[in-house]
Design goal:
3 copies of one chain form a homotrimer. Chain A has about 475 residues and is mainly α. The first copy, chain A, has helices at about 20-35, 50-55, 65-85, 95-120, 130-150, 155-180, 190-205, 225-245, 255-280, 290-295, 295-300, 310-340, 350-370, 375, 380-385, 395-425, 450-460, 460-465, and strands at about 40, 120-125, 125-130. The first copy, chain A, has a single domain, classed as Ammonium transporter fold (Orthogonal Bundle). Chain A is about 65% helix and about 0% strand. Chains B and C meet through helix 3, helix 8, helix 9, helix 12 and helix 15 of B and helix 1, strand 1, helix 2, helix 3 and helix 4 of C.
Chain lengths: ~475, ~475, ~475
């Protein structure tokens, strides 16, 4: 209840010049690079009238905007409100959770538009962007939000911006290897977003291991209302996950199917999470940590396969398993990771993103390998896996092998990248707080006096009398 | 402020084996039944390319996904955030409100996909699902969320799962009778969702009457921030209700019209609610209970008629009346129901869903009976009421009569079903809490120590000094 | 912490008869006027089947509903949750913030449908409405929500309803002058919504200047959780702003482009806001007031130009500048306005809406003046600025001049209108609270006893022991 005694801090956490410098420098860089490279794509350019005629489109409704914009907005909510509020569960780190998530995501989407643009939307020296690029930028930043979950409360905003810069870069490289070189399908990002993001974050937090973190243990819990704020994040992630997994799938049946599979998987996941949360606690009481997190594992675990013919009952199975794995992870793996492997994972991203992400990659590989022309139809089969051009001779089992390779590449990129970036973040110049001041907004934020002051007043009756 | 003394509890509320058993058993049943029955509908199946050709569709945008997915997501938010947070108004039952709503809805949508599928999407031994089925499953679960409002804080999660199983079943039967046998229109569910759900819940809570409930009276109120959490639920229900009432209407003008009528009705409802809330309180102060609930009655009351030519001013009238009825209900009827009829209605669903639902059914019957070819146009008239096939000779007044019959059937189903299900829930095996522990999360949830502990510290200064 | 002593109030704040009277009177007026004037537009009318044939439309998807409804819902969320929760930052005015915003917006949209309908959708003595009218009504009310921000906590609900009546009227006149007489482009409302709304509100609050407001200074701050509630409002405004600026743009590329420009501007704005928030505080700590508000300035500042070929890097520049201007405004201008000009601006709308609105108007004028057929394409150029009919000879530079004139007209309307309406609101009949009771929900709302009572109990140990 008492304020941390900052006068006693060994570290200089003042952001006064460092944070503005980094923010402004990077924003200027963004402006210059956008000026040189970024232009409107054909469907967002005022020349669209002529374009429409050339493409023989009879209606404005054929603009990709109308296929994807509603999904984009749902994804946008997931990144900013979903991840932001999910992390407000800590009693005294709500500002940092939602505020730093806001900061890193707002920077990350700009840098992602460039990085992903160079890899995927580059033509004649320019990057041409449309609504699909906005979705992909949000996706890329999603992987940074995931990694943020592991180091939540232990890093300065500058460290987060530095991490975002590197992680977005590595994400884009990894995504390019998977989607373009390996020709892997991963529309909902089980591998590119969740597996990569989570193992990257876990590696970073391992490198940044703080042996004295138990000094701030009293602040690493929740209070009643902070748990309710976190449920806002949970529910928005849960509800909009069908949009997440279907947002960049092919028009038509693929988007439709992705939404259905994800809806089913998530519904099943809630039941197994509740079951195991109650079963693994001595008195059978439910734990909000599980409800806030493990209920979402079903969305992660169908990220790769949702647009495939996974089928509704297949989705129920995947969702059920991932809810169990994730809840068991919170009860047994997280303490193990911390005590034995020195991995301090604030939000338990290992349980919500890493393991379910791996499940998602594996389920995707199996579903791809099991695909037949009978199930997909002749045209549907080619369209679903994009078996055209140089890939027209690929068989489902070979595709399954490449999907599996995608998991391995994502893991390697995450470990190597996380180790390097963790090393950079360990430099003593970024202004992170001492162990006893972790999980405390007061270090980087102006915090209003409230309950604390009440308690203070109690011991000073004359003050309480005249507020 | 003191914790309930659980050691003194007469009842065994431990969920440790019972809740996992029920959750896992039912999820396994869902997987088996989905495996046997549920398949992707044509628009979500990879054979869609061929389907498109057969149906002469020139564009993927004709896929029903693009007509209904944005509305589906809005409905989804209403069920999980809307109902979930609306019920967080209780000071110590926020976890139960949002968490149990999450649990029952996640189970209910799976069971509803099956039940409604057998009645409406069954062909050649399989249920074929698409986005419209997802919306209908959410709708069905909406009626369970409504019934949950009556028994909020007084039941165990197992009781809720048992109730969901039965209520979804009965809902689907009632819906089949109304929509298929009586050929009644009810796109926004005034009868099928609200009237049925509310009277079902009120009957259940009557059967479960707790004579000693005043023992937990101190917990049956709100605190300042719990009222703000509840407003999140209110506003999402209010804002997205136009999507709710238009989500499964016919493509084109019907969806468009439903949204406009609902928008108008809800706007009017806010003003009359505020007026009567202030008028009925001695000092003229507004009551958050009314603002959180009665402002929504306008959405309920145009549920049947919104897709008809109710007209914007007709909607204003219906919305105005329902706001008044609902607010008056909170002030006068709820205490009467409790003291005289022994109906303990935690959220006042009688005022928000039951009476406005009846109004909605009646307004729908009148609007249907008053329909003319002049107002609808010749084709529009047939399309609006689906007067084709065996129904091509139906006149508006006969349709109005059938609409009225739909209200009666819904009421009978609700009373009979609620009595039976209430009886089942009364069995002493489900682990519900004793009267003095109602409205208290601590019974079924791990609750963090927070303000309480502060207050506790006050009386133990030595503890407060070293937190 | 102590309750205000109401017994000492000089003013009669009871709403018991006044508020119901105003609400019911105005709702009756709405019903009569809607009955006389408002009808469904062609796309929402049951005659649509015939209409479709006449317009040679082959699919229901061509109904404007499918182009605009998802954006409408996003705008709807911005008005009710966005503005409502943004203003909950005050520690004891959360009910008033979200509740009065709800009240005035629900009334305002009805009156706006009429006012804007007479100006823009009037034919043969009737107003024909569709989804675009709903969006415009929400937009119009947005300007009232902005003005509410200046007087938040200092006015009675009746004053707000009176202000809404007049402001909606003046908004519609101003909008008609700009869009129809000056033929100005302003799809995102930098001028019509933000400049007009903000300067109107600032003028009103100037007229209502309260010299003794420091008597309630202790309640004019936030507490920890009220700041988190406010962040819900901030994030929904931020995330959905691309929908706001694109909602009524032309179908196709214009909507697409508006969303991209707004997305970019807002992302940049977050970084410069964070930079200056940290830089301008002695210890370099971030201030939630800036994060909650100045991060949104980027959306305001591209309101006029987002649908033009502003380009992504142009958007980054505008967003960066507006974040800086807005944050500097909070630190330096707001105290200056209060101490020197007697403008008491509770939410700092001068920084979030007034200055960025002016920037938006100017950027729009420049972007229009700089337009060339080369950049827009021949057809795109005509379509973007609607240079048809009597306007076919307008050049870009003339258009730029008219855009600039639009700013001036909006300012004059705001100052004149605000002065008159402020004068009306100064009449001593509306039941506003005394200075010492400002920013206090207890004046107009039933407020549950909570933390206060705890603190009270502390000094009465015998009470605390038996709650």
């Amino acid at each position: 209840v008492e304020r941390p005694r900052h006068q006693g801090m060994a570290k200089n956490t003042s952001m006064r010049w460092r944070l503005p410098l980094v923010c402004l420098l990077w924003e200027v860089a963004m402006i210059v690079l956008f000026g040189v490279f970024v232009r409107f794509g054909a469907e967002a350019d005022a020349h669209w009238e002529e374009e429409k005629r050339e493409m023989n489109l009879t209606s404005d409704i054929e603009n990709d905007f109308y296929f994807r914009y509603p999904s984009f907005q749902d994804v946008h909510v997931m990144i900013f409100v979903g991840f932001g509020f999910l992390m407000t569960f800590l009693k005294r780190y709500g500002f940092g959770a939602v505020g730093f998530n806001f900061l890193l995501a707002a920077f990350g989407i700009q840098w992602a538009l460039l990085m992903q643009g160079w890899f995927h939307s580059f033509k004649d020296g320019k990057i041409f962007i449309g609504v699909e690029n906005l979705i992909n930028a949000d996706f890329c930043v999603g992987s940074v939000c995931i990694a943020f979950g592991a180091i939540l409360g232990k890093t300065s905003p500058i460290q987060l911006l530095v991490m975002t810069l590197f992680q977005v870069t590595l994400f884009s490289v990894n995504e390019y290897i998977l989607l373009n070189l390996l020709h892997v399908k991963d529309a909902g990002g089980s591998m590119t977003i969740h597996t990569f993001g989570a193992y990257f974050g876990l590696t970073v937090t391992r490198v940044l291991y703080r042996p004295n973190l138990e000094q701030s243990k009293d602040k690493q819990g929740s209070v009643y209302h902070s748990d309710l704020f976190a449920m806002i994040g949970t529910l928005y992630l849960w509800m909009y996950w069908p949009s997440f997994n279907s947002a960049i799938s092919d028009h038509g049946d693929a988007q439709h199917r992705s939404a259905i599979n994800t809806y089913c998987s998530l519904a099943a996941c809630v039941l197994t999470t509740m079951a195991f949360s109650s079963m693994l606690q001595k008195k059978g009481k439910l734990d909000m940590v599980h409800i806030q997190n493990a209920t979402l594992a079903g969305g992660v675990a169908v990220g790769t396969s949702a647009e495939m013919m996974l089928t509704p009952y297949g989705s129920l199975i995947v969702g059920s398993i991932s809810g169990i794995v994730s809840t068991v992870g919170y009860v047994y793996f997280t303490p193990f990771l911390e005590s034995r492997l020195h991995i301090q994972d604030t939000c338990g991203i290992h349980n919500l993103h890493a393991m379910p992400g791996l499940i998602g990659g594996i389920v995707g590989a199996i579903t791809a390998a099991a695909a037949t022309e009978d199930v997909y139809g002749k045209e549907g089969f080619i369209k679903a896996f994009d078996f055209t051009g140089v890939y027209q001779t690929r068989t489902p089992s070979i595709q399954g092998g490449f999907q599996a390779a995608g998991i391995v590449v994502s893991l390697l990129m995450a470990f190597a990248g996380g180790a390097i970036v963790g090393g950079i973040l360990k430099l003593p110049i970024w202004g992170d707080a001492a162990a006893e001041n972790c999980f405390e907004d007061d270090v980087y934020w102006e915090v209003p006096e409230d309950e604390e002051s009440d308690v203070y007043h109690m011991h000073n009756p004359e003050k309480a009398a005249s507020p």
